[in-house]
């Protein structure tokens, strides 16, 4: 059996094809063909036929565990903490339906707290500044809203000069 990815000459393929013409394949041979075709593109019609054939079948516990990998009973990875993460010191919450989610489906919690306080969504240009409590202190008393990033930077310049 040639190695996967090994190119055979057209004459050799023709000889093998002629020799095997009309012969039934053994179970072992069918398995080896299946292994050789991993990554093979299957048409939508064939996928639908396979899906219809498997509909209603129950998985064994071993097969289910193999498919789930290291996921828990809810289908989440074992590191799942309910959609709350900390990235760059900021608390982020999973909110797939929020209009300003990042590419992973998270929104920074301080923006959500400010939106709840104002009763409206924040504009993408608005900046929420954390006070002395730090980036993870998302109480409304520790947050200040700026219309633009320029106003936020100006505020920092003025306060830096006042403290020096």
Key terms:
5 strands; alpha+beta; two-stranded antiparallel sheet; 164 residues
How does this model look, in words?
The protein is of the alpha+beta class and 164 residues long. It contains 6 helices and 5 strands. The strands form 2 sheets. A 3-stranded antiparallel sheet has the order 1-2-3. The chain has a two-stranded antiparallel sheet with strand order 4-5. Strand 1 and strand 2 (90-94) form a beta hairpin. The relative contact order is 0.06.
Report strand %.
5-15%
Strand order in space, largest sheet? 1-2-3
Q: Helices and strands: which structural class?
A: alpha+beta
Instruction: Specify the number of helices.
Output: 6
Integer average pLDDT? 79
Name the shape in a single word: elongated
Low-confidence stretches: none
Report helical residue fraction: 25-40%
Radius of gyration: 29 Å
- List the helices and strands in order: HHHHEEEHEEH
Q: Determine the N-to-C terminus distance.
A: 77 Å
Largest sheet: 3 strands, antiparallel
Q: What's the number of extended β-strand segments?
A: 5
């Amino acid at each position: 059996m040639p190695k996967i990815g090994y190119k055979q000459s057209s004459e050799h393929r023709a000889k093998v094809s002629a020799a095997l013409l009309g012969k039934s394949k053994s179970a072992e041979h069918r398995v080896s063909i299946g292994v050789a075709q991993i990554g093979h593109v299957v048409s939508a019609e064939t996928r639908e036929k396979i899906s219809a054939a498997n509909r209603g079948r129950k998985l064994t516990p071993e097969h289910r565990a193999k498919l789930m990998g290291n996921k828990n009973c809810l289908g989440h990875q074992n590191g799942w903490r309910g959609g709350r993460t900390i990235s760059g010191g900021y608390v982020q919450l999973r909110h797939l339906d929020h209009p300003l989610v990042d590419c992973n489906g998270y929104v920074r919690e301080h923006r959500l707290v400010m939106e709840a306080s104002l009763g409206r969504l924040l504009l993408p240009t608005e900046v929420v500044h954390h006070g002395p409590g730090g980036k993870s202190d998302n109480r409304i008393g520790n947050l200040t809203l700026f219309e633009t990033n320029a106003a936020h930077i100006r505020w920092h310049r003025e306060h830096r000069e006042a403290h020096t």
